[in-house]
Amino acid sequence: MSRFLVSAAHKSSGKTTITVGLCAALSAKGLAVQPFKKGPDYIDPLWLSQASGRDCFNLDPFLMTPEQITTCFTRHAAQADISIVEGNKGLYDGLALDGSNSNAALAQLLDLPVVLVLDARGMTRGIAPLILGYQAFDPRIRIAGVILNQLGGARHESKLRAVIEHYTDVPVLGAIAHDPRLAVVERHLGLMPSHELDDAAQRVRAMAELIAAQVDLPRVLQLAASVTPLPPTPSAQPAAQAATPQPRVRIGLARDKAFGFYYPDDLIALEAAGAEIVPFNTLQDACLPEVDGLFIGGGFPEMFMPQLQANVALRQSIRAAIERGLPVYAECGGLMYLARTLRWHDDVYQMVGALPADVLMHERPVGRGYMELQTTADAPWSARAGAAPQTLRGHEFHYSSLENLAPDLKFAYRVMRGHGVDGQRDGIVYRNVLASYAHLRSGAGTDWAPQFVAFVRTLSIVSKPQVSAVARSVLVHGQPVATDSEGYLKNLDDWSEDFARIQAKAENLALTDEHWQVIRFLRAYFEEHRVQAQVRAMIWHFAKVWGTEHGNNHYLHTLFPVGGPQKQGNRLAGLLKTKGEH
Predict the structure, then answer these.
(1) Angle at which helices 513-529 and 535-546 pack, to 10 degrees?
(2) What span, in angstroms and rounded, lies between the C-alpha atoms of 175 and 160?
(3) Of the residues 10, 256, 318, 526, which has the maximum number of CB atoms within 10 A of its CB?
(4) How far apart are CA 71 and CA 381, in angstroms?
(5) Catalytic residue among 23, 56, 72, 332
(6) How many whole angstroms separate alpha carbon 37 and alpha carbon 62?
(7) What is residue 226's DSSP assignment?
(8) CA 114, CA 320: separation in Å to the nearest integer?
(9) pTM to 2 decimal places
(10) In this predicted structure, what is the pLDDT of residue 569?
C-alpha cells in the first residue's frame, strides 16, 4: 500500500498545486492514484479529484476518531496503486498544543513518509537549519524528501541543493521554478473550485507536465513503497440493517457551478441508507426532478446571483415543494439560496424565498473554523421524541450573515463553538427544512445521512398518495407500522405516542398539550363506544374543560388544520376509520 504525505513548512507554500501535479503526473503513467486531504477542505479535494479521476476523501482529526481515519484511509487506499495525502497549513500546525491533530500526527497514525514542500524564495544557506529543525522537532516523523518551490533559476537551485546535501541527509526530490502556469485562480475563500472553470482539465494537464519535468517521479514512487503494510480495513459493508427491507427514496442533489461542496463519503452514506441520488442544476433546470427530498450543499451562490435569480421557474418549484412539506437539508450556500434575498455591495437578488431571512455578504469571514453543536428539541431528525441532545462536530466558513429573521424561527442547534447564524444558534427549521451554516460529515460521527434518509422515507410514505389502500406504512423506531392510504392505522394495537408524533411532523403539525388532550379524549371515547367521536361530542366535552372560548368547532379546526379534528385528530389518535359516527 504505497503512500506518502505532502506537507509544508507553512501555508501558501504551493503544496496544493504540487500535489495536484503529482496526482495527475502519476495517473498519466497509468497508476491508480487515490488522493486524500487532511482537514475539512472542499476546494482542494475537487482539484485532486480532477487530477486523479478518483474521489478525494478528507481525513480530519478534529471531526474523526483515529479509528475512523484509519478505516477511511485503508478502505480506499486498498483499491489504488498509490495514495497521496495532502496536508493543510504546516507540518506541525494544528489546534492542539500537543500536536495531536496536526499533519505530523496524521503521518504518524498512518505511517506516512513526508514530502516537505519548501517555498525557497529568498533562501540559500538558511534552508538547512529549517530542514534540520523539522527533523529534530519530532524524530518519529520521517521526512523522506523535500521539493523546493518558487526557485529563481538554475543558479538558485544549485546553491540550495549543495547546502541541503552538505548539512542534511534529506534528498531533494524536485525543484520547481516559479511559473505562472502552476498558479490556480484564487478568490476570497482560497482556490477557485475546479467545477467552476471550463478549462480545469487543461490546467491540470499543464501542472502534470511541469511537475513530471521537475520532480524525480521514480524516486517519489520508491519512497512511497518503502512503508510497512497497514492492518486490513474492516468490511466496507454498512452495518446490518433490520430484516424488513426499507423502500428506497430519491434525494435531489443540487450540483452545478453554484453548488458543489459535498463529501463523497456523505454521498456514499446516503446511498447505503437507501437513497437514490438525483442531480439537478439550479442554473439551468426549469423544475425539480421527481424526488422525495433535497440536499443542497455549499458553494458560492454569491458568484451566480443573476443566474440564480433568472431561473424563476426552479425557484418557484422549490418553494412550492417546501410549502407542501418536502424534506430539505441545506448547508451554508444552500441556506443562502433558500433565503428571500442575497445582497452583496449594492446588488440585491431574489432567491427561493422559502426561509424568512435575507442574506448579506461581508468583506471578512463571519464564521470560520470548527464547530461544536448541540441538538435542540426542534431538530427534525431526532431518533425519537424525548431523546437526549446530541453533540455534533462540524465546520463553517462563510462571509455572509442573516438579517430580518422572523422572530419565531426555530433552530435545530445550540452553538457551543463557532458562530452559526448568530453566535448562539444554527440550523433554521422551517416546515421539513433544516438549513444551517454548519457543514457536517456523516462518516465523521454525525450520522446525518442515514437520519435524513429515514426522515425522508417516513414523510414520503406518509404524504404520498398510494394506489392501494394497504400500500403504506410509517416507520416508528425503524419498524414499519401499517396504515391505509389515508394514514389510518390498520391495527389499533400498533398505536403509540411516537406514532402520533411522526404523523404530526409529516403533516407539519407541532403537537401541544391541547393536541394531546384531544388525542387522549378521542382514544378514550373510541374505547367506550367503538366508533369515532363526532365533532359535536368533542365540542361538548372541551367546552367544559377549556371554556366556550376554546371549546368550539372553530378552535378545534385550528388545532387540526389537515381534515379537522374528525379526520386529523382521529388519525393521530391511531383510530380505525369507521363507517359511522356516534
Answers:
(1) 130
(2) 10
(3) 318
(4) 26
(5) 332
(6) 13
(7) S
(8) 52
(9) 0.75
(10) 87
Cα 531 to Cα 518: distance, rounded to the nearest angstrom:
15
Q: Where are the alpha helices (DSSP H) in 331-447?
A: 333-338
Distance separating alpha carbons of residues 129 and 16, to the nearest angstrom: 24
Q: State the DSSP code for 292.
A: S
Q: What is the dihedral of CA 494, 497, 502, 504, to 10 degrees?
A: 120
In the chain, what is the straight-line distance between the N-terminal and C-terminal CA atoms, in Å? 74
Q: Is 72 a catalytic residue?
A: no
Closest among 574, 514, 511 to 538, alpha carbons compared = 514
Phi and psi at 95, nearest 5°, equal -70, -40
Among the residues of 435-531, which ranges form H helices?
448-463, 497-506, 513-529
**All cell numbers assigned to 103:** 499533519
Residue recorded with cell 516537505: 116
| Three-class SS state of 421 | coil
Separation in Å, CA 367 to CA 115, 148, 486: 32, 34, 45
- Those residues whose C-beta lies under 8 Å from the C-beta of residue 569, and which sit 6 or more positions away, are 518, 519, 522, 538, 556, 559, 560
- pLDDT band, residue 462 (cuts 50/70/90): low
pLDDT digits (tens, 9 = 90+) for 103-133: 999 999 999 999 999 999 889 999 999 999 9
CA-to-CA distance for 413 and 403, rounded, in angstroms?
18
